[in-house]
Specification:
The complex is a heterodimer of chains A (417) and B (288). Chain A is α+β, with helices and mostly antiparallel strands and 417 residues long. Helix content of chain A is 24%, strand content 31%. In chain A, the strands form four sheets. In chain A, strands 6-7-8-3-9-10 form a six-stranded mixed β-sheet, sandwiched between helices. Chain A has a five-stranded antiparallel β-sheet with strand order 13-12-11-14-20. The longest helix of chain B has 34 residues. The radius of gyration of chain B is 25 Å and the shape is globular. The N terminus of chain B is likely disordered. Classes of the chains: A alpha+beta (417), B mainly alpha (288). At the A-B interface, helix 4, strand 6 and helix 5 of A face helix 9 and helix 10 of B.
C-alpha cells in the first residue's frame, strides 16, 4: 500500500458558506458514495483503486454527467462520459489537446448541447437549459474580459444581469475585488492590467454571483511559470475558503496534480481514469494514463507466473520482473509494467530487492533539485531514474556501472492493449 | 540603423543595389503625393480662389444667408442623415448575418452586396426609375395585388432619392461594420451569456459597444458621401429634390456662376471635413 492519497480528505468539512451548500432534501436523495477512482472506461479497474474509494467521505454530488456523447459530423468528440463531482471539490479534467475536455466543459456550461446523455446540477436536469439560467461561473482560457468595461463594471456585470440593487452590487464588487487582491483597481480597463491581474478579474467576475459551480478552462496557460504556480495555489485556497465546487480543464499534468481533489484523465473523447491525484499517479489504469501523467518507464512483457501475491513478467529482452499487489492474470497475457523514475534505488552488491537490474549510465540530466539518469540495462532496454541531488554528493558520470533495485509493489501492471 | 531587417538585407547577397531604408518610403510616397497635389490640392486651391475672386466674400454671403440656398443645405443634410440612418439599420443585420455565416455563404452574400457596386451608378439609377415610376414594376405589383388603389408616388420625390441613395451606399456601411464584427471575440458573447445575460443584454451591453467603431466608421463614410451625391438625386429627384451637388451643377451649367458654384463647393467640402473630424474624434475617444 502506498501512503495515503494527498487529497482524499474531506475538503468541505462543514459548510463554510451556507449559501453554497445545496438544499438538503433534493440532494440527499441523490447521494451516492462518490465513485472515486473507478475507471469508467471499463476494463482494467483494479482492486487498489476500489479500496481508496471507501476512504472518500460521501459528499453530496453537485454535478453529475450521465452518458454524455457528442459528435461533430463524423468526428466523435465525446463518447459516453459519466462523471460525478461532489460538492466542494475540485475535479480536474486532464487530457491532451483534442481529447474532448473543452467540449465537455462547454456541455456543462451550456454552450453546446450533447447528442445524448444528461447534465444534472444539484439534482436538476439542465442538459438543454440556457447558459444564463444555469448560474455557473466560468473562467475562460483568454479570460474573456469585456474590453470596453472597467474592472468594476466587468465584475458588476453578472450582478446587474441578476438585477441586484445598486448598493448591493457596489458592496459585492468591492468585497470580491479585495478577495482576489485587486482592491483599488476598480476603474482600470482590462488592457491596463497584467496577465495575472486580468486573471484575478476573470476569477472575481466568475465568483461574484456565488455560483454553485465554477468552470475553469486552462486559465493559467498564458501566465509565466512562477505566476502560474502562485495563482494555482491562490485559486485552490479561494475555492476551499468559499466552498465552491470546481471543474477545471487543463492539459498540464503538474497543474492537475497540484490543484485537484480528483483527476479525470481524458483521451479520445472518453475518460480513461478518475481518481485522487496520488492514485492516478501511482496506479495508472492503463498505458495511456501511465504515459500521460508523469514520466514513466513502461516495459512490455508476458505473464510468466501468476499468484495472488505476485505476478512474474518476462520482458521481450529476457529479463524477468516481479510485481506485487496486481490482480492475477492468465499466463502468457501481454502486460505493460510501469515504473516511475523515482521508484528504483541504487543498491550495493549485498542489497537485495524483488527486482534488481545492472546497467551503465548513458545520459545525465540536471533538473534543479534532482538528476535524471538514463541507464542502459545489461539485460536490454533503458530505464530513466530520477534521484534527488544533494550538493555534497558527486553525481554519477556517463559510463559508470551501477546496480539498482525496486520493490515489487512499486511496479505497476497495466493491460498492454 | 542597425535593426534586424537591415541585417537580413545585408546578409543576402544581391547584385541589384538595395535602396537605403530611409529612401524607400520617400520614393514610394512621392508618386501619390504628386498625384494628389496636381489632381486634388491644386484644383481645390483654384476653387478657393474662384470663390473669393475680386477679393469679396459676396458668394459666401449669398450661399449662407440666401433663404433659397439655406433651404438646399437643410434638405441636403436632412437627406444625408436619413440615408445614413436607413443604411445603418439595414446594414447592421446584414453585416451580422455575413459575419456569422459560413465562408461559402458569406461569399455569396458579398457577391449580392457587391454586384450593384460593380454596376455603373447611371445604369442602376435608370433601373430604379423603371422600378419606381408611376407605371413602374413596383406600382403595378402594388395595384395588381390591390394593396393600393392609386399608384404611389415613388419617383421624382424624396422617397425615390432615399431608396436610390441607400441602395448605392449600403456596402460602404456594411463593410466597416462587418470587419468590426469579425474582430469581436466570440468568447466574450459566451462569457456574457454564462454570466446570466439574456440575448438582448448580450447585444446591448457587449456586442453593440464592441462593434461601435465600425458603426462610426460606416456612418462617417456614408454621411460624407451622401452630402455630395449628385447623379442619384438629380435623376430620381427629377429636379424637385435639390441637393448641394445638384445646385452646384446648375450654377455652373445653367447660370455660368463659377464664383458662386466655387463658394458652394468650398462650403460642402468644409462640412464634409467637419463631419469627418467629429466622427473620427468620437471613434478615437472610444478606443483611447
Amino acid at each position: 500500500m502506498n501512503s495515503g492519497p494527498v487529497n482524499s480528505g474531506p475538503v468541505n468539512s462543514g459548510p463554510v458558506n451556507s449559501d453554497q451548500v445545496t438544499p438538503g432534501p433534493v440532494n440527499l436523495a441523490q447521494v451516492k458514495v462518490a465513485s472515486t477512482g473507478v475507471d469508467v472506461s471499463g476494463g482494467s479497474a483494479e482492486a487498489p483503486q476500489e479500496r481508496t474509494d471507501k476512504r472518500v467521505p460521501a459528499a453530496p454530488i453537485l454535478l453529475s454527467l450521465k452518458g454524455i456523447a457528442k459528435t461533430y459530423g463524423a468526428v466523435s468528440a465525446l463518447t459516453g462520459i459519466d462523471l460525478e463531482v461532489p460538492d466542494g471539490q475540485i475535479l480536474t479534467i486532464l487530457g491532451p489537446s483534442g481529447s474532448g475536455k473543452t467540449t465537455l466543459l462547454k456541455v456543462v456550461a451550456g454552450f453546446e448541447a450533447p447528442d445524448s446523455g444528461d447534465v444534472e446540477l444539484a439534482g436538476r436536469v439542465i442538459t438543454y437549459a440556457t447558459p444564463a439560467s444555469r448560474g455557473i461561473g466560468m473562467v475562460f482560457q483568454n479570460y474573456a474580459l469585456f474590453p470596453h468595461m472597467r474592472v468594476a463594471e466587468n465584475i458588476a456585470f453578472p450582478l446587474q444581469m441578476r438585477r441586484l440593487a445598486r448598493s448591493e452590487i457596489r458592496d459585492r464588487v468591492g468585497r470580491t475585488l479585495s478577495l482576489v487582491g485587486l482592491a483599488g483597481y476598480e476603474s482600470r480597463y482590462p488592457r491596463q492590467l497584467s496577465g495575472g491581474q486580468q486573471q484575478r478579474v476573470a476569477l472575481a467576475r466568475a465568483i461574484v454571483f456565488e455560483p454553485r459551480l465554477l468552470l475553469l478552462d486552462e486559465p493559467f496557460g498564458a501566465l509565466d511559470r512562477k505566476l502560474r504556480e502562485h495563482m494555482q495555489l491562490e485559486v485552490k485556497h479561494l475555492q476551499r475558503r468559499l466552498g465552491i465546487t470546481a471543474l477545471f480543464v487543463t492539459h498540464d499534468q503538474e497543474e492537475a496534480l497540484v490543484l485537484s481533489d480528483r483527476i479525470a484523465v481524458m483521451n479520445g473523447g472518453s475518460i480513461e481514469q478518475i481518481g485522487a491525484p496520488a492514485d492516478v499517479y501511482s496506479r495508472p489504469a492503463n498505458r495511456f494514463v501511465a504515459d500521460f501523467i508523469g514520466q514513466s518507464n513502461i516495459y512490455r512483457g508476458k505473464v510468466a507466473a501468476s499468484s495472488p501475491e505476485a505476478l512474474t513478467v518476462t520482458l521481450s529482452s529476457g529479463q524477468t520482473f516481479v510485481a506485487r499487489g496486481a490482480s492475477p492474470r492468465p499466463i502468457g497475457v501481454e502486460v505493460g509494467l510501469v515504473l516511475r523514475p523515482e521508484a528504483p534505488t541504487r543498491l550495493t552488491d549485498q542489497d537485495s530487492r524483488d527486482n534488481v537490474a545492472v546497467g551503465c549510465i548513458a545520459d545525465v540530466v540536471y533538473v534543479g533539485d534532482a538528476i535524471k539518469y538514463s541507464i542502459r540495462l545489461d539485460g536490454g532496454g533503458e530505464m530513466v531514474v530520477r534521484w534527488p541531488f544533494y550538493r555534497n554528493e558527486a553525481p554519477l558520470g556517463v559510463g559508470e556501472t551501477l546496480r539498482i533495485g525496486w520493490a515489487g509493489d512499486l511496479l505497476h501492471v497495466v493491460d498492454w492493449t | 540603423m542597425d535593426n534586424g531587417r537591415l541585417n537580413v538585407v545585408k546578409r543576402a547577397p544581391r547584385r541589384i543595389p538595395v535602396l537605403r531604408s530611409e529612401q524607400g518610403p520617400v520614393l514610394v510616397g512621392l508618386l501619390p503625393i504628386l498625384f494628389l497635389g496636381f489632381l486634388f490640392l491644386l484644383p481645390v486651391a483654384r476653387l478657393l480662389m474662384l470663390s473669393v475672386e475680386g477679393g469679396t466674400l459676396v458668394h459666401f454671403h449669398k450661399a449662407l444667408f440666401g433663404e433659397l440656398y439655406l433651404r438646399v443645405f437643410y434638405d441636403t443634410f436632412k437627406i444625408a442623415i436619413t440615408v445614413t440612418l436607413l443604411s445603418l439599420f439595414l446594414a447592421y443585420p446584414v453585416a451580422y448575418v455575413l459575419s456569422t455565416a459560413s465562408p461559402q455563404w458569406a461569399l455569396i452574400g458579398f457577391l449580392f452586396l457587391m454586384l450593384p457596386f460593380w454596376t455603373s451608378i447611371l445604369v442602376r439609377t435608370y433601373a430604379w426609375m423603371i422600378l419606381l415610376g408611376r407605371n413602374g414594376v413596383l406600382n403595378q405589383i402594388l395595384v395588381g395585388l390591390g394593396l393600393v388603389r392609386e399608384p404611389v408616388a415613388l419617383l421624382y420625390n424624396v422617397p425615390g432619392v432615399l431608396i436610390g441613395m441607400v441602395h448605392v451606399l449600403l456596402p460602404y456601411m456594411v463593410f466597416p461594420i462587418y470587419s468590426a464584427m469579425l474582430r469581436v471575440d466570440r468568447d466574450l458573447l459566451l462569457a456574457a451569456e454564462g454570466l446570466g445575460a439574456s440575448s438582448l443584454s448580450v447585444f446591448w451591453r457587449v456586442f453593440l459597444p464592441l462593434t461601435l467603431p465600425g458603426v462610426i466608421a460606416g456612418t462617417a463614410l456614408v454621411f460624407i458621401l451622401s452630402l455630395g451625391f449628385y447623379i442619384t438625386p438629380a435623376l430620381l429627384g427629377g429636379g424637385r429634390v435639390i441637393m448641394i451637388a445638384v445646385l452646384i451643377e446648375q450654377q455652373v451649367r445653367q447660370f455660368l456662376e463659377w464664383g458662386f458654384a466655387s463658394a458652394l463647393s468650398i462650403i460642402l467640402l468644409s462640412f464634409a471635413l467637419l463631419a469627418f473630424f467629429a466622427l473620427n474624434r468620437t471613434a478615437w475617444r472610444r478606443t483611447a
